[in-house]
Design brief:
It contains 26 helices and 5 strands. It is mainly alpha-helical. The longest helix is centred in the middle third of the chain and has 22 residues. It starts with 15 loop residues before the first helix and ends with a helix.
Length: 523
């Protein structure tokens, strides 16, 4: 069953560095480091501070080679440069080295050094005995907390490569190699490696974060029915590109709005990509008083007080960016990123938006809200943020009873229970899949086929809906359907194995490996 009321969209950890950068990266770096604890030599020279600020700028641009060159032969006793060496080690995924550098008492005595040290130690604990797969040809580095996830790596690499190419075209930003991805077991590890409070991750259903120059995301095995993990990866890579392209100066509304826009551009459009419409959800949220001004979202969508508010804010920023890029033109966004790279204040951001698009943010916000009032805003009750499935308890009861009967071989009786559930939740794809599977097992293929024929008949994306669609209606498009299923729930045995029974395997070698991994997962 789909988890109702639990946001499974990606979100970012707090970006304190972005606020710092908007006030002027070099000036703030100089001030912060000059007032920090001093090394044994007594005082930091202006030259040391300038070098540290240049290293930090390179690190925030995710340019590790440039940062390494700046920090080469750095005096180990220099506090400012030691801090940046520790930061660089975190960005490069060398958490043990970072923890050792940041363990210095004089660094740990500073707020920034202590914070980085906590991240480094959490990361070092989480990555002990991990597996690293470094695809040098494609420039993608993947670290797995669970070796059983190795079968996911080819798909991660494929999507990372496609997304990197799309972002270079859409945003004018080239991400350097390697692009780093950490795949972790649970939200506890996600929190330890990124600094996002675990309770915030659980409240908003956060499954991935782009921070410290890499993407950290949950394995699909961490959720009962998977999640859109490949779109999530593309979303988070977009955050890395925005951080690189603006030197971490992009405000949160821009970061999240652009990431929502780009998360599906690596693949062909799906009919359910905008169901329910971001415009409609944004308007509904504003009407309910749950919307927020674009520049008052807070430090992170992942830090909002509920999954409902997170869903509404995601819809707001997605709707606004889609509207702004449509009205201002395709060239406006890359130009804005270039201007933000050297921004030193919020006034610089406002000036850049006005000069590029002919109006400031407040004027665009007013135009966008007027536009929202003109679009159809009918949202089915079950798709509204925070809503629950009608008759949820009865649907769940019927589904569970049907599952028990199905597992015991009573397929016809199971189909009766699943049909009663489907009558109460006609557009719920998971319920349709349970019914279709029972009908197939009963030999009623003709009755099962209509349940997974038209994507317009369901209101959300579901992995097994696509695998059953591929089996019953695929024909020449079967491969696309099976790929759509693995993009949502790759470790479900039925989805990964294209509905084949053991020991048969899919012909595609990537999905064959996924199938074997999924069957090992199943009790």
């Amino acid at each position: 069953m789909r988890r109702i009321g639990c946001a499974v969209g990606p979100a970012r950890a707090p970006r304190r560095a972005a606020a710092v950068a908007r006030r002027g990266l070099l000036a703030v770096a100089l001030t912060a480091l000059a007032t920090a604890a001093t090394p044994a030599s007594g005082r930091l020279s202006v030259g040391d501070l300038d070098r540290a600020a240049r290293a930090r700028a390179a690190i925030l641009e995710i340019d590790a080679p440039a940062a390494r060159a700046i920090l080469k032969d750095a005096d180990p006793a220099d506090l400012a440069l030691a801090l940046e060496r520790g930061r660089l080690a975190i960005y490069e995924g060398d958490c043990d080295a970072a923890a050792a550098i940041l363990a210095r008492p004089d660094l740990a005595a500073t707020a920034e050094g202590a914070g980085l040290g906590d991240i480094a130690r959490g990361c070092a604990r989480a990555t002990a005995a991990t597996v690293i797969v470094n695809d040098e040809e494609n420039g993608v580095w993947v670290r797995l907390q669970d070796d059983d996830d190795r079968a996911l790596v080819p798909l991660l690499v494929e999507v990372a490569t496609r997304t990197r190419d799309v972002l270079a075209k859409d945003l004018g930003v080239e991400l350097l190699r390697p692009l780093r991805i950490d795949l972790v077991r649970d939200q506890f590890t996600l929190s330890a490696m990124t600094g996002l409070p675990e309770d915030a991750a659980r409240t908003t259903g956060t499954v991935a974060i782009a921070k410290w120059g890499r993407v950290t995301m949950l394995s699909p095995r961490a959720t009962p029915n998977g999640y859109p993990w490949l779109d999530t990866l593309a979303h988070e890579i977009t955050h890395l590109a925005l951080s690189r392209g603006t030197r971490d100066n992009a405000p949160l509304w821009l970061q999240e709005g652009v990431a929502k826009r780009e998360e599906v551009r690596w693949r062909e459009p799906d009919p359910l990509d905008d169901v329910p419409s971001a415009d409609a959800i944004a308007w509904l949220g504003l009407q309910k008083g749950l919307g927020r001004p674009l520049d008052k979202i807070g430090p992170s969508i992942a830090m909002l007080p509920s999954a409902e508010e997170a869903a509404i804010v995601f819809a707001e920023v997605a709707s606004f960016i889609r509207y702004w890029t449509r009205e201002a033109g395709d060239a406006a966004l890359p130009e804005l990123l270039v201007r933000l790279k050297d921004a030193s204040s919020d006034a610089d951001l406002e000036r850049a938006i006005a000069e590029i698009s002919g109006a400031d943010l407040a004027a665009w916000d007013k135009r966008w809200r007027a536009y929202l009032a003109t679009v159809p805003a009918d949202v089915p009750p079950e798709l509204a943020p925070g809503a629950d499935m009608p008759h949820r308890q009865e649907v769940s009861r019927r589904v569970r009873l049907g599952q028990l009967l199905h597992e015991r071989g009573h397929h016809a009786a199971a189909a009766v229970q699943h049909a009663r559930a489907q009558a109460l939740a006609p557009h719920e794809p998971a319920v349709r899949c349970f019914l279709a599977a029972s009908l197939l097992a009963s030999g009623e293929r003709a009755s099962a086929a209509p349940l997974v024929e038209r994507v317009e008949d369901v209101t959300s994306r579901h992995g097994r809906w696509w695998s059953l669609h591929g089996l019953l209606h695929g024909g020449p498009d079967a491969d696309r359907a099976f790929s759509a299923g693995t993009a949502l729930d790759p470790l479900n045995p039925e989805v990964a194995c294209e509905e084949k029974l053991p020991p048969e395997l899919p012909a595609d070698p990537v999905r064959s490996a996924l199938c074997e991994a999924a069957r090992r997962k199943k009790p």
